[in-house]
Amino acid sequence: xxxxxxxxxxxxxxxxxxxxxxxxxxxxxxxxxxxxxxxxxxxxxxxxxxxxxxxxxxxxxxxxxxxxxxxxxxxxxxxxxxxxxxxxxxxxxxxxxxxxxxxxxxxxxxxxxxxxxxxxxxxxxxxxxxxxxxxxxxxxxxxxxxxxxxxxxxxxxxxxxxxxxxxxxxxxxxxxxxxxxxxxxxxxxxxxxxxxxxxxxxxxxxxxxxxxxxxxxxxxxxxxxxxxxxxxxxxxxxxxxxxxxxxxxxxxxxxxxxxxxxxxxxxxxxxxxxxxxxxxxxxxxxxxxxxxxxxxxxxxxxxxxxxxxxxxxxxxxxxxxxxxxxxxxxxxxxxxxxxxxxxxxxxxxxxxxxxxxxxxxxxxxxxxxxxxxxxxxxxxxxxxxxxxxxxxxxxxxxxxxxxxxxxxxxxxxxxxxxxxxxxxxxxxxxxxxxxxxxxxxxxxxxxxxxxxxxxxxxxxxxxxxxxxxxxxxxxxxxxxxxxxxxxxxxxxxxxxxxxxxxxxxxxxxxxxxxxxxxxxxxxxxxxx
Length: 528
Prior knowledge:
Elements: H1 3-6, E1 8-9, E2 12-13, E3 22-23, E4 49-52, E5 56-61, E6 64-69, H2 82-96, E7 104-111, E8 117-125, H3 133-138, H4 144-160, H5 165-168, H6 173-187, H7 197-212, H8 215-223, E9 227-229, E10 239-242, E11 245-248, H9 256-259, E12 260-262, H10 263-276, H11 280-294, H12 300-323, H13 329-346, E13 350-355, H14 362-373, E14 376-379, H15 415-432, E15 437-440, H16 446-458, E16 462-467, H17 488-499, E17 508-509, H18 516-527
Parallel strand pairs: 13-15, 13-16, 14-15, 16-17
Antiparallel strand pairs: 1-2, 3-7, 4-5, 5-6, 6-8, 7-8, 9-12, 10-11
Protein name: Aminoglycoside phosphotransferase domain-containing protein
Pfam families: AAA_33
Organism: Parafrankia irregularis
């Protein structure tokens, strides 16, 4: 079929105002027609053009765009029949009118020179190319207002998106694991040529490890209705920043499995694309404002997982483009694989044990590490492993219980076990929900450390063990109770324990005498 000829009727471009050739996909009873849009500045004056993608051919004429689906089987889509292309065109119009109702005008029938029906195409209003978000970002234009408006639009959009028990299943660990496995199989033909095998192996291993320990987090996202039929392919090149607000185009219409999912996966696609354009700061800005407008909370590790997944999806697409003869797509695929691996490494869930005797700066270090990395901090003293309500901060014992070897609340050394039970309970809740945890405690008993190692194993968390040495300059840096202010019974128990602590060869002993900043840097390196 000659595309240029087929899109002409009586010498004129087919448009939404033509009578016979146009089939508006929303003219079914009870379905509203797309509203009339204001003219788009610069679009009508733009020259005619023809653009080919791996799935479509787009013809730009005047203030219209005509999009014809390729008759192709790419594995993840099959448009070889006219009926399949018609269904895809109708779905594209229906789905994209959710975010750009004044851009998607309808579906046109394509007639050959003999007047016979031979294909179908999507008819769209033409938007000014210089207002694409990707163009603005690449040019270094300040797009914070545009990103803020985009985040607000997408947050509102997601509240309207369809959800159901079947759709919610797309957010399960089993479904997500299947999608990762499908992606890994999809790039196998390109290992050793386009992609590095070790990189892809690490991607698969880290993605599976995250999912293995986050079942409670994913179930909670499902229960809250955060798994929906969204956009599925949010790219900066498909967002047009107009004076009256953004228009978001090109929703993924050919496979609902790739479109439904956690709303964080949707917004994560755009964050990934902004990063690939060299602007991780804009990606963080977008995620922060989306979180605000959507009034939802999520661990940073989950955002990393979805950004990595979206990068890997685009990596597979780039591999397909390379196979179609686009040589530059190989470098793009490698860059996207590297981006996916970077986020999976960043999103690893960690259980960090910070131990050491009082006076060694342990409390200050644990607090500083948790604050710097935005991790959850749990302290032994906060659950009564250090002092009870009968003691004041000077360590006095107004009740006289010290002589009996108990604190004012009646606790003795046997209560340490119960204290660690509570630390592990709280830590497990956080770890299963994707939050890394720092636990500040003595950790002088191997049995306690073994329990921590088992907790890390069952929650698929990385175990990091750090020990401070007495005499480090961090000991007066604040954070936690100072040794000289610690209650008497605890001082005696800690002193006795520190004289004969269980060996701790697995721990990284942080440099004695280092300043607080150097100590924190060493801890961050060890936990990284």
